[in-house]
Amino acid sequence: MEFTSESEKQQYYIEQCRALILAKEQQYGRKLTACVVTFGCQMNFKDSEKLIGILNEIGYEQTEDEHADLVLYNTCTVRENANLKIYGRLGYLSKIKEKNPAMIIGLCGCMMQEAHVVDKLNKSYKFIDLIFGTHNIFLFAQLLYERLMSGHKVESIWEETSEIVEELPSVRKYHFKSGVNIMYGCNNFCSYCIVPYVRGRERSRNPEDIIREVEALAADGVVEVMLLGQNVNSYGKTLEHPISFARLLKRVEEVDGIERIRFMTSHPKDLSDELIATMAESKKICKHLHLPIQSGSTSLLKKMNRKYTKEDYLLLVEKLRSAIPDIGLTTDIIVGFPGETEEDFQDTLDVVQKVRFDSAFTFIYSKRSGTPAAEMENQIGEDVVKERFSRLLNLVNQISKEKTTLLEKTTQPVLVEEVNAKLEHYVTGRLSNNCLVHFPGDKELIGRIIQVSLKEAKGFYYIGEQVN
Ligand code: 5AD
Ligand code: SF4
Q1: 202 C-alpha vs ligand 1 centroid, how far in Å?
Q2: What is the mean pLDDT of residues 168-180?
Q3: I need a surface site. Which of 252, 339, 353, 431 has the fewest CB within 10 A?
Q4: How far is the CA of 190 from the centre of ligand 1 (A)?
């Protein structure tokens, strides 16, 4: 068969799979079900929307129950805990498969890009049917077809890719908001981080493709987009016609129907004055920035290969706050990086106190084999790390609590996201600064931006009331 594009080829395999699944449907007298479970970050969630889009076109009915005809785990490997979670759940899946040998179990995502993981799976988890990595996710239909036709395990991992395949099916979890990939991979090689090894080199999508996707989303009722990349601040630098991330934001802002723009993740070293000015002028870019600091100690930041100092970071925050006074700032912090002394840790506490983050994700350092930090001397003992971690968490939580009170009793625009699972007749919405508010309302409000009075700050969220 001759194909003019990769997406056309994959469309062909989708149809081939559809015919096979249809035959099984007739044989079983029911629809076939698929369960996609996603671990990790926004990127993985976005990838899963593509995988589910393909499965839907093939004819599978989606379910959250792992007693399905096909179960696909989209894995994460950023910390060891993520891997352990997968091995644990695979044990549980094997029991289900014992009772239903026709079941297909697939694994994809970041963990599959590590050779030692795939070796272990091949040796000890022989019941897995399909394994593929992050670089060839667009081949999913083709690989599934191979598996369905051959009845044998299919494994396909690529070391690298420069390819970006556009125009594959995708299904959105929310009808009113969507992630949009603007770049893939990472070139930063922070010394603790496995991402550059499992997601490959930085590749930006063409701005035209991104804008076309945003326009189509807007036409389909999406009001909020989240631009996704491992390091969005370096977007566009390697394109044939380079363009800055700030310029891209301006173009996204021009799309009618889009009312809110968010982005993830920013690296402090690449955050430009142009971006700060663009955020300050914009009517649509949300007043929120996630700016991972990782550590407050300049010497540790150097060992982490972060390329900024404690003072650089504080200066950046000062610039951001003077241009956008009500900006919500959140961050990631790692505790227990090799060689971290009490003095280094005090620097981290000091930055947290000075910046007063609205919230922070705190992580215990996890040794990832293959990264430079895994080879460093002075790995920190568990007791010391745990004690530091709890000191940090207490401080972070106390500040978050204090910060939420600042908007108490004000009225803010809120995008309503979902019916509240715990409080009856309540819905949950998000402020521009990313904070959540729960207030009385029903599902008709979902997807709308409405004014909500923030009656009471509850630490990390508010209880509010709709203002007419
Ligand atoms: N150990 C702990 N945390 C890590 N992160 C990345 N790699 C590691 C690691 N080896 C954290 C960083 C990053 C976030 C997504 O995960 O803080 O910003
Ligand atoms: Fe990992 Fe650093 Fe790249 Fe983020 S910027 S993905 S922490 S290497």
Answers
A1: 18
A2: 92
A3: 353
A4: 9
Tell me the sheet residues that pair with 38: 74
In the three-class reduction of DSSP (H, G, I as helix; E, B as strand; rest coil), residue 391 is classed as helix
CA distance 298 to 312: 9
Could you identify the residue written with the tokens 């076109």? Answer: 57
End-to-end CA distance of the chain: 60
CA nearest to 329, candidates 295, 361, 365, 297: 361
To which H or E segment does residue 15 belong? helix 6-28
Name the residue among 301, 462, 294 with its Cα closest to residue 392. 294
CA 415, 43, 73, 152 dihedral sign is positive
For residues 52 and 184, the answer to whether their CB atoms sit within 8 Å is: no
Task: Determine the Cα–Cα distance for residues 353 and 341; give it in Å rounded to an integer.
Answer: 19
Radius of gyration of the chain (CA): 23
- Rounded Cα distance, 159 and 148, in Å: 25
Which of 71, 36, 70 has the alpha carbon at shortest distance from 51? 36
Residue 204 bridge partners (DSSP)? 183
Who contacts 124 (Cβ-Cβ below 8 Å, separation ≥6)? Answer: none
Residues contacting 424, CB < 8 A, separation 6+: none
428's CB contacts (< 8 A; 6+ apart) are 416, 417, 418, 419, 420, 436, 437, 438
pLDDT grade for 62, boundaries at 50, 70 and 90: very high
Output DSSP code: residue 255: S
Q: Is the pTM of this model over 0.85?
A: yes
Is ligand 1 within 6 A of the CB of residue 337? no
Tell me if 285 CB under 6 Å of ligand 1.
Answer: no
Give me the residue label for tokens 């009471």: 456
CA of 302 to the centre of ligand 2 (A): 14
In residues, how long is the chain?
Answer: 468
Residue 214: φ, ψ to 5°: -65, -40
Q: What string of DSSP letters covers 271-301?
A: --HHHHHHHHH-SSB-SEEE---B-S-HHHH
pLDDT in tens, 399-412: 999 999 999 999 99
How much is the average pLDDT of 155-168?
A: 85
Residue nearest to atom 9 of ligand 1 (CA): 366
Return the ligand 2 atom nearest residue 193 CA.
Answer: 1
125 SS3 class:
coil
Nearest Cα neighbor of 268 from 361, 371, 181, 188 is: 188
Integer CA distances (angstroms), 453 to 92, 291, 419, 423, in order: 46, 28, 18, 18
